[in-house]
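Figure-free illustration: sequence to structure, shown twice.
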Amino acid sequence: MKSILQQQLKRKDTNSVKWDGLEQWFRLSEDVLPLWVADIDIRTAPSISEALAAKAAQGEFGYTLFAPEAQKAVSDWYGRRHDLIVDPNHVLFSSGVVPALTHIVEALTEVGDGVVIQSPVYPPFHELVVGSKRQVFDAPLKKIDERYEMDFVALEEAMKQAKLFLLCSPHNPVGRVWTRAELEKVVALADQYEVIVVADEIHADLTFPSHKHTAIGTLDSRVITVSAPSKAFNIAGLFASYIICPVDEWRKQITKVQNKHHVLPTPFANTAIIAAYTNNRAERWLDQLREELEQQMNDVIDSIESNLPMLHTTRPEASYLLWLDFSELPMSAEDRKSWLHHEVRIFLSPGGPFGPQGEAFERMNIGTRRELLDEAIHRLSAQMERKAFV
C-alpha cells in the first residue's frame, strides 16, 4: 500500500481552517507553514469516501436520528479495538468532543461545582469549565526524567474539592498513553471521593503500535467516555462524535441537555461512523497510518535533536502532536510568536492556552508530508543561527 502521509493533497484554497485560516484570521503571508490545527494533510480512508459518495448520491438530507447501526458500530469497535464491552443503547451522538464535554459538565454538575483538569492540557478543557461557571481544580502533570507523569498527590487534593474529572487519554499535548496502573489509581481516587470520571479518548485510535491504550471504561463501569473517528480517520469536519455513558440516570440528564441544544447528527455523520468502524479496509488503513505516524514522529524528533539542540521535547506515544520546549530561547511568548510567524514563517499552536506550564512551549502538528517538516526544521535552524540562538 502506498504511503498515506506522503501522498500529495492540496488543502490551500479549500477553505481549510489549518491552511486558509492563516491568511483570513491572522493576515499572514501564504508561505507560512501551518503546523497547528489538529487535523492531518491526508485523504481519509478510501472506503469512507466511497460510503459518503454513495450516501450523497441518494439525495436525501433531511433531519436525521442517530442510527442504531452507528451505535452498534461504536460498540463493536470498542469491543474489538479496546476490549470494552459497550451496550449500543449507551451510545449517544454528539457533534464534537468539546460540545460533548460541555454538555456533560452542564448535565452532571451545578454552577460553582469543581472540575479537575491536568495541565498542560487541550485549552477547551479549561475554557468550557470556566464558561459553564464551574470551578477549575488543576492537578498539573509533572515531568520526571523527560517523561510526563500524573501527580497523584495533586490529583487527590483536587478530587477532594471536585465533582467531576476531565481526563485526556491519550493526553493532548504531551502525548502520554496512560498505563493501566496509572488509570487504576485514577479510578481508585475517583471512587474514594465520588468524582465522576469523563475520559476524552479521541486520540486513542492513533496510539502508536509500540504502546497500548487502556480504555478507562474497562476499569470502572461508571466512567463516561467521549470519542470519535475524527482524529483517527481525519474526518473532523464531519462533526461525528459520541458519548458512551453506562449510567442510566446520567445518560438521561445528558440527553435532556443535548435536546435543549438541538443535538442531531447529519446524514453524513452516521455514514462516516459506520464506514470507519465496520469496514475492514478502513481498519487496515488505520493500522498503516499508526505505523507511519510513529516512524515520522521519531524521525522528526531525531532531526530536531540533531539540528535544533536548544529545543527539547518528550517522545509522544500517540497521535501527531509534538510538545516543543522553547525555554532556552531568550524571548517572551509574545516575541516568540511574532518571530515564528514573520521570520521563521511557521505557525505552531502557542503553549500558553494549554496552561501556565505551557508558556515556554509550542505544539507542532507533524501530520503532514515529510518535506514540509524538513523545511520547517530548516527554517527554524536558519533563523536561530541568524539570531545567534545556537
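We now fold a second protein in the same way, so the two outputs can be compared directly.
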Amino acid sequence: MILNAGTLVTMNDEREVRSEVHVVVEDGEIVAIEDGYASGEDAVDARDEVVIPGLVNCHTHMYALPIRGAPLDAAPESFYEALVDIWWNVDEAFTERDARLSALGSCAEMLESGVTTFCDNYSGPNTLPGGLDAVAEGVAQTPIRGMITFETTARNSEDEAMVGIEENQRFVREGEDDYDRVSGHYCLHTLFTNTRPVVEECVDRATDDDRPIQIHLEEGLVDVHESIAEYGKRPVPALADMGFFDAEVIAAHCVHSTETEIEILADHDVSVAHNPYSNINNAVGIADVETMEANGLTIGIGDDGWDPDMFETMRSAVGIHKLKQNNPSGFDMAKALEWATIGSAEVLGMDDAVGSVEVGKRGDFVTLDLGPNPVLDESAPYYVVSAASRADVTRTIVDGDVVYDPQTGVTGVDDSDLDAVGAASADLWNRL
C-alpha cells in the first residue's frame, strides 16, 4: 500500500509533522516515508487529509457496551454503589453470547473511531471456563489488535478468584495461539476485591508467563479506605509488601495515589492507564498526571468502556487538567494525542510495533477530514485534539489494509452482526 498524506502526524521521538508525503507499506510493515506523492493502483489518496497513527486504547471494558441505554433503576451516589448496584449485577448476568457480541460490537465501534489497538478487561464469572474464548471470537471477527484478560475478583470467594486466574493462564497458554491479533494477559480487579493469597498467586502466574498484570488502582476512595483497614497502609505500599510489583504492572486510574505512592510506582516501572472520561462520569476525581510525569511514569489513555470515541476521551483529559490548574493554558493539548498513540503503546509494551508512524512499525493509520481550514505542521496535533471526532474518520488502516471507511463499514462486520449485538443487549436488560 502507498498512503499519500497531506499532513502526517508521525508521533515519532521528535513528534515530527510532515506535509505532502507518502508512506509505503509492504507485508503490513512501514518500509518508507518519502517526500511528495506517489501513484499506483494500490495508492490511497489522503492528500487533503490529516493522517495520524492508529489510536491505542490502553484500558477498556467491552462488556460495558450492552448497558448503554439500559432501563436500570439504580441511582448510585458513590463509585462503590455503582459497582454494587450496576456492574456486579451485569457481571453475574453475562453469558458467552454476551461476551462474544459485546466484543464484536465494541471492536467495530473502535475501528470506526480510529482505534487499531486496545487492551480489554472482561468480567463474567458465570462464563468460566471459556469466557475469554468467546471474547476472542468477537474480537477476531474484526481486523483490530487486542490484548484481553479476565478481571480476577474474590468479592464472592477466593475460589472464584482462582478460577479467574486459571482462565487467564489457560488463554495465555492454550487459547491465544488460535488468533493472529489477540493476546492474553492477567488482571486483578482491585486490591479491595482481592486478598493477599490471590495477589501472590496472580503475580506467580504472570511472571511465569512473562505477561503484565492490569489492576484498577485507587480509582475510588473505597480502595484506599479498605486497604488501610485491612493492611494498615494505603494500596501501593500494601501491594509492594505482597511482591505485586515483581510483575510488570499496568495501573489503571491512580486517581487517589499520593506523591509518595507515585514515587513507589515509578521505582517499579509501573505504567499508568489514565481514564479521564470515566473519572468524570464516576465522579471519582482527577489523577495527578503532573506528578506522575515528573517521576518518569509512562502514561497512556483509555476509555474504561464509557465511550469508543477516543477523541472525546482526549478532550476530556484536556478539559479536566486545565480546570484543575484553573488555567486555560495549564495543559499542553498535544499531550493528549501522545497519550492516545505512542504513550498507550508503551503502556502495553507494544511501542516497537504501533503508536507512531515510523519505518519498521506496522502500517496502522487513521485518516481525518478536518474541514476547510488550513492545516499547519506546527499546530496539526492541537487541531486534531481540539476538533476531530469519530465522524471525521475517513479510513482506519491496519497493516496497510483499509479496514474501515464510512461507505463500506468495518471489514468482517455486517448489519446482521450489529442486529445480533442489539438483540443480545435487549435480552440482557430483561435478565437484569
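Summary for the second example: The longest strand covers residues 43-53.
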